[in-house]
Amino acid sequence: MITDLDGQERIIEGTVNMGAYEYNVPLSVTLVKFEVSKEGQTAHLKWSTTDETNSNRFEIERSHNGRTWNKIGMVKAYNESRVLRDYRYADCTPDRGENLYRLRMVDKDGIFAYSHIVIIEFDGNSPDVFIYPNPSEDKISIRDYANVKELIISDLNGRPLYHSKSFSQGNGIVEIKSLAQGVYIIKLKHVNGKVLSHKIVVSE
To answer: Would the pTM of this model clear 0.85, i.e. be above it?
Structure first.
């Protein structure tokens, strides 16, 4: 997603429409890594770039549902760089439950692009590694799958996209190659009657 100087999002076959003029705009930042981990009640975000041109800043955004995002911080960029650069940001006040993070990478002309989404959970009532890897691009594994009698994957509007009533008889792996990039809800119904819902991120 790229925005012009007037705040309009315009992408036409890789060419950004700036209004009166059109320019072929190169990607100003090459992001090679973006990940999140936790220590106590703090979320630690780490990312790396290998190429920056006219870059200005990284804005850190957080969401609990993948639709509404809030800016929680900012890290200054190196502006011009052709070597590996590492960045860090600590979110000391994450929300209870699942936290989704993304980077809004902004250059000096106001043009920006979003990173992929990373997700982590702060919830003492359930482990944060029921589903892994998360994000994933092709498949996910369910821990303790033998006790899961039913599994449903839905989009954020609640539309079911995958449903298995005999999940415990498989190998605990769910193929997600057919899902488009984005955020989904996975619901696990256990044999003891407990129902758990988690967000998963399908990446490119």
So the answer is: no
Q: In DSSP terms, which residues pair with 88 in a beta bridge?
A: 46
d(CA 105, CA 61): 11
Query: 177: which strand partners?
Result: none
Output the CA–CA distances (angstroms, integers) from residue 85 to 79, 117, 194, in the order listed. 11, 20, 45
Provide the b/e sequence for 49-79 (b: ≥16 CB within 10 Å): bebbeebbbbbbbbbbebeebeebeeeebee
In the structure encoding, which two tokens stand for residue 85, read together? 């650069």
> For residues 44 and 65, what is the distance between their CA atoms, to the nearest angstrom?
20
How many whole angstroms from its chain centre is CA 111? 20
Give the list of residues 6+ apart from residue 7 with CB closer than 8 angstroms, or none.
none
* pLDDT tens digits along 13-69: 332 332 333 333 455 789 999 999 988 778 999 999 999 999 999 999 999 989 999
User: Do residues 130 and 145 lie in contact, with contact meaning Cβ atoms separated by under 8 Å?
Assistant: no
Largest CA distance in the chain: 63
* Domains of the chain: residue spans and CATH: 29-122 (2.60.40.10), 130-202 (2.60.40.10)
pLDDT 10s digits, 92-109: 888 888 999 999 999 999
Give 171's DSSP letter. Answer: -
